[in-house]
Design a protein that fits this description.
61% of the residues lie in helices and 9% in strands. It is built from 12 helices and 5 strands.
Length: 441
């Protein structure tokens, strides 16, 4: 069946195998014609029968009629078999010494390939009887022309076995062809599934990149907001501090623009562009130093295995620490204690800071009640802690956040080994039902 897509490439892909099949069938027909003519010209196998008819023009014509139609055997197997069988029987009735019906045998094999699996039972039985009836028809022909059929019993048994074998071989070939077609369809379906999975993974990656874009913008806006407030307060009494705050605003804005450009470019790419991720503890140290330079008093300790982290773990650790330090600057009293343990099996991050009175009920960046513009209108929509918990849960870790005696404490544990994609997806679905475990900043 030709392909439905009307394209040059599809038609060329279909025409190639068809052309090869036709060439093979033409070669089979020519070879069968040569063998048949050779058998007739040599007066059959064994001792020549004096009653046999010598090869003449009629014999050549019938021999060609019994074999050359094989070139169209895949197109019309029933018609080709009928023509080959009638021509072969005509050679027998006219006493031509055709000891091996090559054309009828090949045509019968093709008929079995085409109809041995026919779901419409009348066609199946007609095809089977047509093949198996060839030997009785030859026996009847020999009897009509005066031969003693009983003396030809070995030849008839051989001929009967030949046509039974022809049908069985055709049926086996059909089953093998169907199996090959099933395997090819399975391969195509597997390729389609792989492509679908690739597209799904790309869509998930683009969603993750969009979340990174949201986080980058949210954190930068909060830092800029804090520094702008500091610059305003220090403008009159500490010009140097005011300039430092404005410089920090400029650096954060410039870095954020670069990150947003990179992430937006990734969203526009179709071939799996992946933004570079912080790979080791140096990125965490740089993040701490950047917040320290922005005016946050930080006591930090980073210890343990400083090997490169898996990409997802590195991103999660970086974003969780960034979120926690931004919260400390935005909602705390200007100081924070940071402890990072890089163990062989997991990464543990603890950030604690004294919270301002009445400011220990938010929800991270722009959390409810603590964002820019009041309750429910914060930058990021009030999903800071939820987003951090989602990152940790996605990797099979955990995150706890809450305030106790005026100190807000956030602790996260991230396994170094990232879970497989399937389990990670199930964890993400479960994490949507998780709520905050305590009061948040």
């Amino acid at each position: 069946m030709p392909p439905e897509r009307d394209s040059i490439a599809a038609r060329a892909a279909y025409a190639g195998p068809v052309q090869r099949e036709r060439m093979v069938d033409a070669g089979v027909a020519a070879l069968a014609a040569g063998l048949t003519l050779g058998i007739l010209a040599s007066d059959g196998f064994g001792m020549p029968d004096p009653r046999a008819r010598q090869l003449d023009a009629l014999g050549i014509l019938l021999a060609l009629a019994s074999t050359l139609p094989l070139a169209a055997r895949r197109i019309a197997p029933a018609t080709v078999y009928a023509v080959a069988a009638v021509a072969t029987l005509s050679l027998v009735f006219l006493r031509f010494p055709l000891d091996l019906p090559v054309g009828a045998g090949i045509a019968g094999y093709t008929l079995a390939v085409a109809y041995s699996g026919e779901p419409r039972r009348p066609r199946y039985w007609l095809s089977l009887l047509a093949v198996l009836a060839f030997t009785p028809a030859v026996a009847v022909g020999y009897g009509l022309i005066g031969f003693d059929v009983w003396t030809l019993t070995p030849e008839m048994l051989f001929l009967a076995a030949m046509f039974v074998g022809v049908w069985i071989a055709g049926d086996r070939a059909r089953l093998r062809g169907e199996r090959m077609a099933q395997l090819e369809e399975l391969a195509r379906r597997t390729a389609r599934e792989a492509e679908r999975e690739r597209r799904l993974a790309a869509a998930e990656e683009r969603t993750r990149i969009a979340r990174e874009l949201h986080d980058a913008a949210g954190h930068a806006i909060n830092v800029i907001l804090v520094q702008a407030g500091a610059a305003r307060l220090l403008h009159e009494r500490d010009a140097e501090g005011s300039r430092a705050a404005i410089t920090t605003i400029e650096e954060v804005a410039r870095g954020t623009i670069g990150e947003i450009d990179r992430l937006v470019r990734a969203l526009r790419e179709d071939d799996g562009f992946e933004p570079p991720a912080p790979a080791d503890a140096s990125a965490l140290e740089e993040l701490v130093e950047r917040h320290r330079a922005g005016g946050l008093r930080i006591a930090s300790e980073i210890a343990g295995d400083h090997r490169d982290l898996p990409r997802g773990v590195a991103w999660a650790a970086y974003r969780i620490l960034q979120e926690a330090l931004t919260n400390a600057a935005r909602h705390g009293r200007g100081s924070a204690d940071v402890a990072i343990r890089l163990g062989p099996d997991d990464v543990r991050i603890t950030v604690s800071n004294p919270a301002l009175p009445g400011r220990a009920t938010g929800n991270g960046v722009g959390g409810a009640g603590n964002g820019v513009g009041g309750a429910g209108n914060g930058v990021g929509g009030g999903h800071g802690i939820v987003g951090m918990r989602e990152r940790a849960t996605l990797l099979g870790g955990e995150l706890r956040a809450g305030a106790d005696d005026g100190v807000f404490r956030l602790s996260a544990r991230l396994p170094r080994a990232e879970p497989d994609t399937v389990s990670a997806r199930s964890v993400v679905k479960q994490s949507t039902a998780v709520t905050n475990e305590g009061p948040t900043q």
